[in-house]
Description:
Elements: H1 9-23, H2 30-71, H3 75-93, H4 99-111, H5 124-130, H6 136-149, H7 153-161, H8 164-170, H9 174-187, H10 200-205, H11 212-234, H12 269-272
Amino acid sequence: MKHPTSPSPLEVTASVAAGKQQAGDTAPNDESVYSNVHDVLAQARSSVTRAVNGAMVNAYWEIGRQINEAIGERAEYGKHLFSYLSKRLTDDFGKGFTQRNLRAMRQFYLTFPIRHTLRAELSWSHYRMLMRVDNERRRLWHMNEAADAGWSSRQLDRQIQTLYYDRLLATRGERNKEEVAAEIQSTHPVTAADSIVRDPYVLEFLNIPQSPKQLESTLEQALIDKLQDFLMELGRGFAFVGRQGQPLCLSIPDLPANRGGAGACPAARARCGGIC
């Protein structure tokens, strides 16, 4: 009786090649693999966004409720409580718990006292803007429209500022209403800047440092580089001197006031050594 033997590596390779040949165009290509991977990441990010948004909004609503119930009608005690909570929470959880933000959380609860009416699709940034809408009917309409249409917080702000609610009511015909509704996608399309990971409120909530010093120095260096290039293009008679509080020393010899070496910056001559 013959026992079955394992296929050799050569046979395995041939079998795989034959399978690919039979599969033909059905074999996955680069684009289909990328599409599948893209969908996985997009769904994962969407899940993270919903989780962070939900946790933040619920936490701030609950904080607002507890603060409001603790203060009640005691205005003087409220001043003390906001100051006390701000200091303690900042020590324990980092920035994001200023007295102004805590007051906004209380106002959030007062503006939306029924928790289950909140839309999970919206972020804290959305609700900060919605709280500025005085009329309750308009506010709730913008909240639901923003959630249903998937507006970013920047798009919501634009719609509020341009009286989108009123313009839509005044527009006749369903086709015209669709055109007005789609306008925001062309005038203010969603960009990478609208990403939740760039939202300062999210960074504060998660206590993620924003590295302001690095951003400031990067911007400063870029501006100085451009300014230096510009002065060099102007040619002789101009000088760039110092940074971080040092003056920008400019001299134009052809001006009457500058003839004879008077210079255009006598107050800064000591600092720049008279080179201008």
